[in-house]
């Protein structure tokens, strides 16, 4: 019998989704209101998804041609609201699905993150997670009064200390601290709340948290580090990992690497759920799906500058300075290293234009094109071959139609195969994540 796997949704920020694309309604007028995101979360909960992850960045892109014009004109990751606010609204609209806002270590002090995520875990009844990122853009750093971000590996050294501080703050309230004993007139047992006196090389916090205990004890931690240092960090700390690799062999290698690193860190690898990014193209028939794939390819060819601008934003490299009809030269970055390395390796001797025609910066693991039944079978087979724990949907065109294609078309096909859940087994996020 095929193994059961997990499903998540990678939401490209709380910003205007699929701007200037079909089936987006009046999104340019009502983008600031939460109705679309709340409907999305409800649909995914109806399909029994494990979680929705809210990606974030806190700056307007300007890596392309040293200008913000292309980003603002085309709505590339802007405007974008604070994901913690969106997470609050999604929590109120749902009752079982996990919700994972992104918060960066350089934008929030550890105490602030510990208190915020713990508070969100309380109001969601134990369904909150935290997508921990160290940042990858000096433009974002400047918004917080920094000249630049630290070097890549140093950011993870700092993050190790950061997350240790956050975990200690979460643990500053012991189980049973709130007794609410009317007879003794005692709400909280003071012996079960302690200060942590954390003093590290980069961070310090006295504690304890004043927000009280988290229902989960420790909210779920998500991470997407793809570099060797990032993978080591994720293996030590993450409960679920977002993986951006291409092909079954790379997926299998990633899983094996994670198992090795987790054991080295003294953790049980089965408690870390590895989800691979996908963006299926779903049609009522295979022909319809292939037509849609062709349409998207043609659209990509007509939007080379916008796609390169997006790649520039992620990698901090100005691709506008490169000749589209020449091979991609050697490049280095203090930004998103894995994506840049993947793109350079993918490009090989091809020109920048040729490489971009087949490369997707969203990092989908496999091509999935067909009917719900065809794609469901392929997903099941790939998960068996790779040894992974699930898939994270990251479509380029998130709208009500694309959500329905997954929630009401693909997921029922997966359920008929017996490879995804038909009902939640537990009330809290972590428990559902560890159910299989």
UniProtKB/TrEMBL annotation:
InterPro entries attached to this UniProt entry: Diverse_substr_monoxygenases (IPR051260), Luciferase-like_dom (IPR011251), Luciferase-like_sf (IPR036661), NTA_MOA (IPR016215)
Disordered, as annotated region: 207-227
Keyword Oxidoreductase attached: yes
Name the UniProt record assigns to this protein: FMN-dependent oxidoreductase, nitrilotriacetate monooxygenase family
UniProt keyword annotation of RNA-binding present: no
Species of origin: Arboricoccus pini
Superkingdom classification of source: Bacteria
Keywords for this protein: Flavoprotein, FMN, Monooxygenase, Oxidoreductase
Family: Belongs to the NtaA/SnaA/DszA monooxygenase family.
GO molecular function: monooxygenase activity; oxidoreductase activity, acting on paired donors, with incorporation or reduction of molecular oxygen
Residue ranges of domain Luciferase-like in the record: 35-389
Lineage: Bacteria, Pseudomonadati, Pseudomonadota, Alphaproteobacteria, Geminicoccales
